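Minutes, methods subgroup
Present: GH (chair), OT, SY

1. OT presented the first of two proteins processed in the latest run. Sequence and structure tokens recorded below as shown on screen.
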Amino acid sequence: MSLTSRSALRKSDLREANERLLLSIIRQDLGTSRADIVRITGFSPSSVTFIVNRMIRDGLLSETPSEGQARVGRRPLILRLQPKALMAVGVEIARSETRVAIAGLDGKIINQRTVSWQPDQHVFLARVREAIRALVGNVPSNRLLGVGVSVSGTIDHATGRVVAAEHLGWFEVDIGPILSAGIPASFYIENDAKLRALAELWFCEPGSRPLENFVFLALRHGLGTGVVIEGRLFHGAFGEAVEFGHTSLYPDGRRCVCGGVGCWEEYASQEALERLYAERRGAASHAPEQSAEAILRLARNGDPIALDVLRETATYVGMGFANLNATFNPEAIVVSDYLASGWDLMKDWVWGTLRSRAAHRYLSRLRIIPSRHRGDSALKGALALVLSHFFAATTSSNGNGSTPATASSRRSS
């Protein structure tokens, strides 16, 4: 490569980085003007004008008068993303229901499809691939940012291989090549709990300060945790960090699907709650098994067994929270699934256990809050994974620990 071509490449990278920086600022504040960008970035007004005009010409931005009456002169012009200028696809793989969605730059879902579970991995993944293909069929390849995939278990980010997803029965499954065959886009594959944390980080209210140090607790499929430290997902050296569901509460406890004993997952997950309720009711009742949501409804109606089971499960949740708090000192623990739905019933018991195991000075600033995205958090996280790669102006590193499973066609400049 000649010196001239290397210089041109660096110039192209710099231009792309500046574009994405401005787009990130506009995405986070819906009332941003050119003058605001000058103030925030320190770029010269002429540089901002050049970059903004180019992005308006490319269809990425529009510029419209602000709402309301100006105090003096004309109303300022506000820059806004054109959401449908570029598209992202999110996939949430789950045994209950797999969802495939397409969204614009704002992350709002435009269309989605569902795929029913199939025990045969290849048949199932082929159907997911066809659902993706159906959604992107009319999207030009240079407008498709990529496909984010949420799946439980341990992921090899470099290859898109599921190393182990016990709750799906998948071990060493190369889902990246199967899903991406014939689709000209990058595929980003990540653990579902981490992506649910990313959704909380990425899709906060415009203009509000996102949480920067928090733990997300996913309870739908086992017990997963996603940890954000200083505004970045934490993965560890090999992408397998923060598997707190498989830390041990009891040395002689229940055997876990991971092969361990006494794992937190076996006492605080949705499956653990449902199993405990069935055990307390007794096999002689011959009543159908109750889901976590049904147990919550029974508790609200005063069912003593349901209330007792929630109280015991809340104790196990609080024990795990004490470990999370001692390890990460988070500003918040974000809860989801049955714990979010039943937080009003369980919060006093959880906090009671937590306070019995940690000094007040360690808990005085901790918040425990339900997820803002509830049942959509994994799907929103898969979309956020793609969007974060686009908005974060990076080259070899993407900042989220996930690398594309396939090469992509990048937007032409």
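2. SY then presented the second protein from the same run.
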Amino acid sequence: MLAHAVTSRLIPPDFPSGSVWLVGAGPGDPGLLTLHAASALNRADVILYDALVAPEILALAGPDARLECAGKRAGRPGRSQLALNEKLIALARQGLRVVRLKGGDPLVFGRGGEEALALAAAGIPFHILPGISAGIGATASAAIPLTHRGLAEAAIFVTGRDRTGELTADLDWVAIAHAAPVIVLYMARGRIGTIAASLITAGRDPAEPVAFLSDATTPRQKIRRATLATAGDLAAGIPNGDPTLIVIGPTVGLSDLLRPLHASAPMRLVPPPQARAAGA
């Protein structure tokens, strides 16, 4: 038996000046950040964050970090992707350690690939840190299995809008309807009526359960239920400011059995003693 406990610690990789880290912030709960992401936030000189990043996560930035909102919400004006790419390059060329902080995962409907290509073309070193995508984090928080033996052997992730903000014209909804039992829709609340009608026309059951997961994994989480036939009507009553993921499929019904005993409390952020004393 060891006489003394051996204490191990993790050493983060170097975050050199003049580089950009594309960081996934996860679905909202700060406890779902990776250790890499928390370390990057603490060491960054400037953090360009998306509008959907929870304030509890931004509070983990280092005391000297400059925070800039770089995202936009549906229906509101915001910085173009080209302008954002140029901003990342300019900041890196100033010798700053730059974090581009994105809700969910940078490479899952997060435009991280576009930013990485722009950085590579400009000769800017970068690092991609994955995060828990909403399709995984939100469904787990709502106790909705994405797959379940004998019920759903596959799940598919689909975006509800293209770069213009409209429903993606080149998606084959007939193929999607038959591709997997579970369909997870990102950024689709305003178009779910049209999408549901397309899926029903393609052969999906109008009574199939649908879950709307808003502000998932946070204390503001709300779960709403509908069917494909009623999804459009329910969506119309969800406030525009609520980020919402939509799940369609047979496993949605399993949450009725799982949620009564499913603990889904997010990690709380408590300010340091001096900050609490200052605000008292």
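Chair's summary of item 2: DSSP finds ten helices and ten strands in the chain.
Next meeting: continue with the remaining queue.
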